[in-house]
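hey team, just a heads up i'm posting the complex here instead of the shared drive bc the drive is being weird again. everything in one block, sequence lines first with there labels, then the predicted structure for the whole assembly after. its two chains so it's a bit long, scroll down
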Amino acid sequence: MKSYFSTLFTGAWSLILGLKVTIKALFSPIVTCQYPREKLEVTPNYRGHIDLVKFADTGTHKCISCGSCMRECPSDCIVVEGEKQEGVKGKVLTIFTLNFTKCSLCGACVEVCPTKALDYCNDYDLAGFAREDFHYDLLKRVEERE
Amino acid sequence: MDIFYSLLPDLIRMVIAAVCGAVIVFGNALVMGYAERKLAGHIMYRPGPMEVGPHGIYQLVIDGLKLMGKQLVIPKNADKPLFMLAPILAFAPVFVPLLVIPFSDKIQGFDLDVGLLLILAFASINVLAILIGGWSSNNKYSLFGAIRSVAQNVAYEIPMLISLLAIIFMTNTFSLKEIAAAQSPVWFVILQPLAFLIYIVAMVAETNRAPFDLPEAESELTAGFHTEYSGMSFSLFVLGEYANMFIVCSVATVFFLGGDSGIPLPYFEYTGIIWFLLKVYLLMFFLIWIRWTYPRTRFDQLMNFCWKYLIPFSLVNLLITVVMVKLL
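-- predicted structure starts here --
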């Protein structure tokens, strides 16, 4: 008989406490981000697809067209080509493309790069209408970036 | 012809009352659907519908249009006539109780001597609609939902009736208008707090809302009795549910919160409806509030609570009321 009433009172008290929690939440400000209207800042640690780094001292990338990343890539999604040019030491990069549809973001290319020319970018809201939208020309991207 | 002319005022009154009833049912569903989603959102720290119109106020209109445009899918082995009958049976009876609810002194369809009995009789048709819908869908989830609904509603009808009966003993009438008028000095919520609490709990269970939404129980039974319903037949169930909420809250207002009584306004015979609707929608807010606060009860807990707590307490309350009425 005692437990009959004690269950009733502890139960009723817990119900009132629960109502207090939700009424407080009802009048608190919202915490969600209205995504297409407003966007959050992405942390610099974010690992998007790879990009060539633009160095401030030279104003361009530091790729030496060694092709290590291309060979290291487990998914075969990087194509690097370079050619010898008159009066320039070493090879000059002519093609650097990434097929992001196959990339598994393992980061082996970034690890292996001898000149630290590769890094992850911060693009996250990627969507497209065709597969080809995700075949990136990284050389063009590094030139267009300021 | 003389009979026709003598009946004409009543006929006109009936037509106007029916039209007003339809306006209340659809308008209430629009307001409550929006309020429910907005409040649910803000309780979860998110804004709720925001896209259609400023703060998403047209969301429910768009949803209604979408539901009207959808195809009515009938499962292959369903019992077709019953399957089509169930949503109509859930929706049609909600108009009748609206006719006898005294919104204010002069705004009332008909003041019947048996107003309360009429409301309770038509409100319980909803159980039949759920049973038919669940049974005819030929789906195990629907059937389980229907069975649960019947067990739950039969159990919760008893404390609801007994708690209202205590008020009936005090006022000696079934007419809602007279019951509302009987509490002009003190509302019955002060004289009968236990009956009010019991009625509130039974009311939530009667309308099949959380934490007693076992007939729907989306985490266990997909959507319970309306799993197989789509388009307009689904939305008839939803309209019926919101209209039932309005009716049970109106009954609570009439029986415990003094009907249309409040601070006097000019033309109070008509403007009393403002106080009435304010009380009804405060109760509806409470229903939404508890829906988004409490988790669903297990079925045995639900039954235990009804048979071990609500019914004994309401019987004791009734006994005390009867003794007090006799003594005073």
